[in-house]
Amino acid sequence: MSRCYIQVLGPQGLEEVSYQADTLQDAATYEPDGIYTTTNTYNTFQTLKFDAHLDRMEDSARREGIPLTLDRPRLKSTLRQMIAAYDQGSVRFRITVPRDQPDHFIITLEPFQPPSAALIQAGVRCVTAPGMQRRNPSAKTNDWAQDRQQFEKPEGVYEVLLVNGQQEILEGFSSNFYAILDDVMRTARQDVLAGIAQQVVFAVAPDIIPVQHKAIRTADLPRTSEAFITSSSRGIVPVVEIDSIQLGDGKPGPYTRALREAYGLWVQTHLEDL
C-alpha cells in the first residue's frame, strides 16, 4: 500500500507537513487538537454526502468553540487536485482543523480499501468497553481519535462498543451501532456522534423494518437477533457476536442483508462529483 499523501491547505495555498505516515490512523497521532471528518471517494473523484460531512465539521467546531470558516468550493477543488496528484484511484481521506489554526486544513489521503466480501459474509465480532467515554460525544474531535488508540482490542475483534452507566450500548469507537430486537431496529440517538452513513440508514430502513431511536442494553444481547455497525468508509458491517454472546444464528441476518442491499442502491444513485 502506498504511503499517505498529506498536505495542509492554508491561507496561502498548500503546504508540506513535517511527518510521514503509512495510514490515516498513523497520521492521526501527529495531528494537533481539533476537529475532523473522515470519508472516502468512489470512482476516484465522486463522494457521498460530502456537504453533510462539512456541515458536521461546522457543528463540531461550534460545539468546541473553534471559529471555523469553510470555503467549500476551495476545499473541494484542493481535494480533487490532491487525489489526482496521488494517482491511487479512490481514496479514504481525513480533513482536520487544528484548534489553534482554524484557517488551516490538514488533508490526508490513503488508498481506499472497502471491507472484504468475506468479512461482510461472515460478520464481525465486537466487545464492549464499559467506562470509556467520549469527552464531547456530539463533536468529532481529535482527542477521542487518539484516546481510543490506547485500548487494546482482543485478537479477532473488529470494533469496540461504548456502554454508559445504564448499560446501554451507545456506539462504536468509530461507528454507529444498531441492533435488531423483536423485529425492530434500535439505535441510540443521545450521547452519540450523529453519523453520515447513519443518515443513509435512516433513509432506507423504514421500508424494511420499524426504527426505534432507543439503545439496547447489554442484558438484551441474548435476545438480539441481529446487529450491525456503520461508518462512511465501511457502509453497513454485520455484527454476529458481542462479548462472546452469539447473536441469532451467528450469521448476518435477513434484515441486515436487506438493509445492506438498500444502502448500496441508495449510494449508487446519490454519488456526487467533487
Features:
274 residues; alpha+beta; D-amino Acid Aminotransferase, Chain A, domain 1; D-amino Acid Aminotransferase, Chain A, domain 2; 2 domains; five-stranded antiparallel sheet; 7 helices; globular
Could you characterize the architecture of this molecule?
The chain contains 7 helices and 16 strands. The protein is α+β, with helices and mostly antiparallel strands. The strands form 3 sheets. Strands 7-8-9-10-13-14 form a 6-stranded mixed beta barrel. A 5-stranded antiparallel sheet has the order 2-1-6-5-3, with helices on one face. The protein has a two-stranded antiparallel ribbon with strand order 4-16.
What's the average pLDDT?
Answer: 95
Radius of gyration: 19 Å
Please, how many helices?
A: 7
Classify the oligomer.
Answer: single chain
Measure the end-to-end span: 24 Å
CATH fold annotation of the largest domain:
D-amino Acid Aminotransferase, Chain A, domain 2
CATH H-level homologous superfamily name of the largest domain: D-amino Acid Aminotransferase, subunit A, domain 2
Strand content: 25-35%
Would you count the extended β strands for me?
16
Mind describing the biggest β-sheet? 6 strands, mixed, barrel
Order of helices and strands: EEHEEHHEEHEHEEEEHEEEEHE
Which strand order do you get reading across the main beta sheet?
7-8-9-10-13-14
Secondary structure class reads alpha+beta
CATH class of the largest domain: Alpha Beta
